[in-house]
Design goal:
This protein is of the alpha/beta class. A 7-stranded mixed beta sheet has the order 3-2-1-4-5-7-6, with helices on both faces. Helix 3 packs across helix 4. The N and C termini lie far apart (about 55 Å). The mean pLDDT is about 85.
Length: about 200
Amino acid sequence: MSHDFLSFFLAWMASPGRVGAIAPSGDALAEVMTREINSSTGPVIELGPGTGAFTYKLLDRGVRQEHLTLVEYGSDFVRKLQMRFPGSRVLWMDAGRLREEALYDDNVVGAVISGLPLLNMSTRKVMSVLDGAFSYIRTGGAFYQFTYGLGCPVRRPILDRLGLKATLVDRAILNVPPAAVYRFTRRVQRGAALRAAKSRSANA
């Protein structure tokens, strides 16, 4: 773990805007980030896995390595991930280009978890990341993001533009520094909600 700390610190020194943290995430944050994910979630995409703190926890939750796609921009981190998770697909790429890549044939991904520093990114980049991620997420799936900020890491105009809603999952107070985890899901369209309500009434 001391070696992981050094790797993170050096990566942060080289590019603080891309890494956004000087140390790997702690177990308390990893627990909250992966709390709603299990073996039945299906394929999972992890953005910015770094040294794999969340990845290890996903495996503990029952997610199989072959169901993991790890998207990492830092070349040093990529090499570590390939050695630590040989059964997973590790991609050296910018998470803002997700939509340009054919990672899956259709919307089968159950969850995307992100360690990206969204607060350090431009509005355009954040929209590219979220839009690309949701192009793979199936109905009912979710995007999980942590933040060291006091509020939601994605501004309301972006959520409105992409038709998403944000929900606070929990706070990892014991993490250093303390962090919060948000779940992003597609908003239910009014027409779809009415049809679902009618269907429930008819079956009651």
